[in-house]
Structure formats: C-alpha cells, structure tokens
Amino acid sequence: MNNTPQHRENLGLWLGLLGVFIFGLTLPMTRLATGTVDAPQMSPWFVTWARAALAGGLSLVYLLAVRAPRPTPEERGPLLLSLAGNVIGYPLLLGWALRHVTASHAAVITSLLPLATAAAAAWLMHQRARLGFWVFAALGSALVAVYSLLRAAQMGHGFGLTWADTLLVGAVLAASLGYVAGAKVTASLGAEKVISWVCVMALPITLPGAWLTWPDQTIAPLSWLALLYVGVFSMWAGFFAWFRGLSLGGPLRVSQLQLLQPFITILAAVPLLGESLDAMTLGFALLVVATVFMGRRMANAPKSN
Prior knowledge:
With about 300 residues, the chain is mainly α. Helices cover about 75% and strands about 0% of the residues. α5 runs parallel beside α15. The longest helix is centred in the last third of the chain and has 29 residues. It is globular. The termini are far apart.
C-alpha cells in the first residue's frame, strides 16, 4: 500500500475536493427541500430540525463505535455555541432566504464565509490579523453589498438590500461563529468528533422539533431526497471528508479548495434547479472569491518585524 508523504498529500487534496463538492450542493439541495414562495415544499423549520436529527443519529452510531469519551464541562460551552450557529442558525436562515432568492444568488453572499470565519477567529480567539486582511475583508463585503443592491434593482425591488440578503448575511455570521467555537475544542476532541458531538447534543431539540414541524401537505419525492442529502452529507459526511483532507493534505493547501465552492453551487443549480448562468452573478462571484483568496493570504502571511 502506497503510504508516502506525496500519496497522503494527494489523497488529502482529493478528500478536500470531495468535501467542497458536497458542501457546494448544499444550497441547491436546501432550495429543493424548502421550495419557493410560489411553490413551497417543506418548512425551513422542519428542514433545519430534520437534517440535524438525521446527522445526530449517524453521529451517535459513530461515537459509540469509536468509544469516544464524553466532552468535558470546559468543552461543552464551545460545542453549544457551535450547535447554535451551525445546527440551528445557519440552516434556518439559509432555508428561509432560499425561498426568496436563487441558489446562485445565495452562493455569492455566502462566499464570504471563509473571511467571516477568519474575522470571527481574530475577534473571539484574540488572533491579530494584518491590516491587509481587514482591507480585503471590507472589500469583499462591499462587493457583496453592491451585488445585492444591483440584483434587487434588477428584480424590481428598488435600490436596496432585500430581506433575503439580510438572512443570508445572518447565516454567514452564525456559521462563522459556530466554526470558531468548534475550532476551540478541535485539538482536544478531534475534528470529526466535534461535529458528531454537536449533532448528538442537539438531538433533544432536533428530534421533537422535527416531529412538531412535520409537513402536513404532500411533499415531492425530490424534496425528500434533498432533505436526505443535506442531513446525511451536508451536515455530517461532508465534514469527515473535509477534515480528513485537511489533516492529510495540509490546511494551507487543502483550504484553498474552498474557493471553488461558490462556482460548484452556481453550476449545480443549473441542472438541479433549472437556473441559468448569469454573467453578473459569475462576475461578482469571481471578484468576491479573489478578495477571499487575497484576504486569506494576508491572514496567513507572517508579520514583518
């Protein structure tokens, strides 16, 4: 069996790419599950609880299989914060937003997530960032704001931010805070166990939540399949591929693959949702991803004395 450093690095890159591909389909699949305002399917509340309950069941089996020790009292606080941001805040806000905007539109807004996570780490973990990082973070945020304004005007909503864009920004903030909270206990628990414990700790909320919000109307089979995807893959299995890829291939190299995620979302929305490739959306996605790339380079660059 080939176990050379180069082989492990290549395997890490492929696993990282698999994780990014899985996450890239989350937005189109969520929109398939919730439907639109004109053709609603599942409630975003139900999608939020049900996807986390699915992941929680799988996580419980995994944690029992590996005989994972229970989190310490010191570890439970960050896990609860991650639960609030990644299990409830992000999917719920995303689900409501995707009833009103396309997955491609949402991909541009949520492409700021890597920068938002780095900013949250600098704030909450007291990590000093170079001035250049904050410049690119501000530039990326400005590009997203301009895109939202232009898109709103294009769709006849006037020259102003839409409610859906506000929800998407909230989703980005919730996810970034959840990621940073989870990162605080990754070293002691292990990355795969962090997401698993988060999902298991959420079961007392997600199981009754899913039961209380169970759809009372007929749901399209494709929407059920989409829910299965976001529960099994987006909420759980994707993290295993992503974290293992980071471990084998190195965080600096593999994390750059995350820059592909908005484009995977935009391209996947064409066959899955019938969305069209829009020049303005692609253009702004390229610009925002460029600022994310430069911002992350500035964040990782060593400070000069």
